Amino acid sequence: MILGLLIPFSIIYSKELLDNKIHSKVGLEKLVKDIPVLAELPRLGKKDEQLVRKDDRSVLGESLRILRTNLDYLIKSKSGRNNVIYVTSSVPGEGKTFLSSNLAMIFSNTDKKVLLIGADIRNPKLYTFFNNKDVDKLGKPGRNKDAGLTEYLYDDSMTSRDIINPMLVHTNTIDVIYSGKIPPNPSELLMSERMKDLIMEVSLKYDYVVVDTAPLMVVTDTLLISEYADHIIYVTRAGATETKVLEFPLKLKKEGKLKGLSFVVNDVKDSNLGYGGKYGYGYGKTTKKWWKF
After folding, report:
1. In the chain, where are the structural domains located?
2. Which CATH architecture has domain 21-273?
3. What is the mean pLDDT of each run of 10 residues along the chain (293 residues)?
4. I need a labelling partner for 100 at 20 to 30 A (CA). Which of 13, 86, 156, 290 fits?
């Protein structure tokens, strides 16, 4: 009987001991210590809406409101206009474009003027979120409908108006700058003065500028333009991001290369969610257990 109890408990203990992944906000906070973890986003099913709506009462909607509130505290804690927010991650597939798109949407819910920039010019993903039946283009004043960030950086005669796409997403209005065509020299393009000029210009015109950047551990692109950011949100994915990976952004912050660093945990299981998911508050979907039918 002792052996029968010892074996399963040993297996469970070994599994926990060998587990080197992030699973929740609480676990991440223990690792990053004094660096803020702004929110955790729930795992979505294949049929779930990928972009938050204006009056969204789902767990995703509430999680994004928590993120918006916490981020606003950081923005208001500094003097001056510090509204440029980069979103990055360690590697592709952790949800940075998903977060960038929804962060822009949740900011626009408060009738703020929001610009979303696709600065991951090696692997553009914004098109997948803003190219469906729920998205209407409100007209384009520019001369080239296919122009994006790379075209702007190449062509000195282009202005920001030529690449900004006004969008109506559900009932939200946001402006989007797509990445443009994939260039042969992405790093050199991002290093140009025109990138700095663009960020400085739009930061004065918009309440929030959200920039979807390249993964930090894969290419150097984000570090090349990190000095223009006021806040950098580092996205981790529950069950996928390894704890040792966090040493990289923490080291960069210590060296002064990542200012305004904060974290978000994406794709968290319902059982690992904090207040919004674990306790519930009348939001989201509720289903009866099979034994209660």
Report:
1. 21-273
2. 3-Layer(aba) Sandwich (3.40)
3. 76 66 92 94 89 87 94 88 94 95 94 95 88 63 70 93 90 92 92 95 96 94 95 96 94 92 94 62 49 51
4. 156
